Amino acid sequence: MENCYYTNERNTQIVISLLKQYGIKRIIVSPGATNVTFVASVMHDSFFELYSCVDERSAAYMACGMASESGEAVVLSCTGATASRNYLPGLTEAHYRKLPVIAITSTQNPLRIGNLIAQVIDRSTIQNDVSIFSFLAESIHDEESERACIVGVNKALHLATSACGGPVHINLQTQYSSDYSVKELPVAPKIGFYKFGEVLPEIPKGRIGIFIGSHRPFTQEETEAIDVFCGSYDAVVFCDHTSGYKGRYRFLGALLSAQVNCDYSQLKMSLCIHLGEVSGDYPTQTIVGKSAMIWRVSQDGEPRDTFKKLSAVFQMSPIDFFSCYAKKGGGNKASFLQSCRDEYQKIYDAIPDNLPFSNIWIAKELSSKLPHHSVLHLGILNSLRSWNLFDVHPSIQENCNVGGFGIDGCLSSLVGASLVHPERLYFGLLGDLAFFYDMNAMGSRHIGKNLRILVVNNGRGMEFRNYIHQASVFGEETDDYIAAARHYGNQSPALLKHFAEDLDFKYLSATDKKTFQDNISSFLSGESDRPIFFEAFTHCEDENQALYDVYHIKQLEGQQRLKEDVKKMVGEKGIAVIKRLFNN
Questions:
Q1: Using H for helix, E for strand and C for coil, what is the string for 74-128?
Q2: How many CB atoms lie within 10 A of CB 583?
Q3: Helix or strand run (H / E) with residue 322
Q4: SS3 for 41?
Q5: Within 13 Å and on the Cβ side, how many CA atoms surround 581?
Q6: E-only strand ranges, 199-302
Q7: Which sign, positive or negative, has the C-alpha torsion 259, 264, 268, 272?
Q8: Model pLDDT for residues 19-64, shown as the tens digit of each residue
Q9: 430 SS3 class
């Protein structure tokens, strides 16, 4: 066939590009229709060294011999139907000998499985001892599916070719395209995988940041390693209330990054280093996602592509990583940090005094007043979002169940934690649905006087009524079946009062700012001989207004500056004319 180049199927292009970048050239091909787009593409690329074998069973054993003899990875390619089943004996051999054999089994659309379509078999589950990793490289239909394919193929090829490698499986979907007009193979990003002791890439020039998702509290040694690194590169550590980092370069970024008119260009980083696990701080992750590249540091070595820009994975401890890069005598650079803090302070100072009584107002009021060395547990998700806007004293330990990210165990986790150190105060801040879901935990006979529970009772899953949530478009209808309103007494002033007091809790309540402030000292006190339960009743409209006001501070600032500029240009009389023209 004349003018035959590469297939236009993007997932196949990604596989071929990464095979070339990993230096994997030997491919043993078995005949078939489903793998034509892959085979035809590599067949016309002089980089690859192809071998033909009709019998897939024999092909897999040939790959074992070739990989063992050469010490290099070998690719297998077959069609759909039962062809791949014949790879099993050879892949089993490769598994127990840790031979780098890469089985690429081509497949039709997985949605056809189980629908009596010819040559479609189910390879979604394979035996434990034929592959150390199996991945479905689906057809590409958007940016997310492309990134998933890039990361999955990178992981497969890395595992196959690493020192402790073995056979891997790539199930490559095809659409049977006949378009082979792509003359230049698009380069798919290769992800670097590094271990301690290896030669590591250089830190790029430009602004450097660290983002830490949920993480256990960092040790003093780990914290110092991060601080020395930040001092060397003028870096900032972007955190939320689950990050566990309390060092000098900590910055709680949610209030700044949540601004509708946030100037992200001032925060854009050349590199952001990603530590920790799941984070519930969505606004700050928006900032991180605008970084030029992301490096992931984790001892599990897994390529977690949270921000769709992962370019390197460092399988090592934070101490090892930061110690490798910290510059001796690098100083205490902190201009990036200071600029972030200055901008945060401007926004914080501009928070309206008339902020409604709400989750956010309560978080602002309490965050600076929590007793030092206490422990804070936050509910999913509205409570966590509200508190992420405001930092607490460095001595306070913070927690939230962001692992599974469900509302179902917030209170139980708090109760369990409070039993470990009965001499410390443990504060739990959660919404009414999260509380009622887990309220049985309050009945434990082990609960001590060090427990403090604050329930913000707005009578619904406020998350779904927030104006930023997609479900809010249904207005009050959202309450019926999405926000689950009017359950659990429908904001009854007596229900939780009796429940708490019957369980020997001291009960406090508030319906506005004044009654809340009247009870703050009692709630925060460590002198109580009983655990304390504080119920704050808020309203949906106030919660939404508070969220809107806080997210639009920079916009309000911009409007005010515009008014002042116009006033300077046209004067008081001009302003009066403009107001009349536009009906004020």
A1: EEEEECCHHHHHHHHHHHHHHHHHCCCEEEEEEECCHHHCCCCCCCCCCCCCCCC
A2: 5
A3: helix 318-325
A4: helix
A5: 6
A6: 208-212, 236-239, 250-252, 271-275, 293-297
A7: positive
A8: 999 999 999 999 999 999 999 999 999 999 999 999 999 999 999 9
A9: strand
What's phi and psi for 518, nearest 5 deg?
-65, -25
Q: What does the alpha-carbon distance between residue 258 and residue 219 come to, in Å, rounded to a whole number? A: 30
Q: Are 316 and 322 in contact (CB under 8 A)?
A: no
| CA–CA separation, 287 and 207 (whole Å) | 13
- Name the token pair of 492: 């009854």
* One-letter amino acid for residue 165 of the chain: G
Burial 185-216 (b: 16+ CB within 10 A, else e): beebbbbbbbeeeeebeebeeebbbbbbbbbe
Measuring CA to CA, which residue among 116, 87, 83, 86 is closest to residue 99? 87
State which H helix or E strand residue 581 sits in.
helix 553-581
Query: What tokens does 505 get?
Result: 């809790």
Q: Classify 274 in phi/psi space as left (phi over 0), alpha (psi -120 to 50) or beta.
A: beta
Q: How confident is the model at residue 331 (pLDDT cuts 50, 70, 90)?
A: confident
DSSP secondary structure of 504-525:
T-EEEEESSHHHHHHHHHHHH-
The answer to whether 274 and 296 are in contact (CB under 8 A) is yes
**Tokens 């035959």 appear where?**
4
Q: Look up tokens 């292009």; give the residue.
A: 13
Q: Name the average pLDDT for the chain.
A: 94
What digits encode the pLDDT tens for the residues 214-270? 999 999 999 999 999 999 999 999 999 999 999 999 999 999 999 998 888 888 999
- pLDDT in the model for residue 149: 98
Cross-strand partners of 28: 51, 76
What's the pLDDT band for 561 if we cut at 50, 70, 90?
low
pLDDT confidence band for 132 (50 / 70 / 90): very high
Given the structure tokens 């980092």, which residue do they identify? 245
Distance CA 414, CA 373 (A): 16
507-558 pLDDT per residue, tens: 999 999 999 999 999 999 999 999 999 999 999 999 999 999 999 998 755 5
What b/e sequence results for 111-140 when a residue is b if at least 16 CB atoms lie within 10 Å of its CB, and e otherwise? eeeeeeeeebbebeebeeebbbbbbbbbbb
Q: Supply the angle between the helices 56-70 and 88-97 in degrees, to the nearest 10.
A: 20
First to last CA, the chain: 73
Q: Which two tokens stand for residue 210?
A: 């660290």
Average pLDDT over residues 438-449: 97
Q: Taking the mean position of all CA atoms in its chain, how far away is CA 305?
A: 9
> pTM for the whole thing?
0.93
Residue 206 contacts by C-beta under 8 Å, 6 or more apart in sequence? 269, 270, 271, 292
